[in-house]
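[AMINO ACID CHAIN]
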Amino acid sequence: MTNQPNDPNGIDEYEPSTEDYINRIKHDDNDKVRANAVFVLGRLNHIEAVPTMITAFENDASHDVKLTVVEVLGKFRIPEVLPPLLKALESDNDDMRAQAAKSLGLAGQMEAIAPLANALADPSDQVRADAAEALGTLKAEEAIDLLVNTLVVDESSNVRFFAIQSLVQIGGDHARNSLVNRLEKESNAGVLIDLIETIAKLKDKQAIEPLRPLADHEDSDIKMTAEWAIGVLEKLD
């Protein structure tokens, strides 16, 4: 065989086709091979493989294959991925639910907002954190009040972090008003500081007046945080 100029060893490298990878998902006996085929097709954005991936999620005996499918389906912003991802969000497995929440945010299907909002009450910290993040990715204004409640009551600092990030990402009058309303009802110093800092991150000058009473708060940390937040907002154009 004649050596190719870009092949100094005279060895032709075989590059599997999309169909080859699809056949591996369907027929290979090795779980790792099937999972890797799903991963590769997702990395290459081969949307034509989505039906095969969905079938694998429904029928494959391997948890790893199913989990990889759920991860990869988030790359495809098409309605067809919604049913399997919603089913995965109801799994008994924490990792599966967490990945489903993340993928539902990435897939951009607005029908996922209500199930993701429900997932803010999931027993798993990681699921709640990924659901909170996904709601921000979807800019889910209808979930603002629930995200504010999550910021206030969730025991996990990681979940609260993503609730804050999502509230800032969504932004707008509803987010500002919901945070301000909660601010007026809270007495816990740590919660008040989190609320004040989140309001400042919204970069909305209309929040200045509701913050002013807290600049005279008897708690020095709350007072300093409120003064800082007011200063940040007053500098906005």
Observations:
- The CA atoms of residues 74 and 103 lie 4 Å apart.
- Confidence is low (pLDDT under 50) at residues 1-5.
- The radius of gyration is 24 Å.
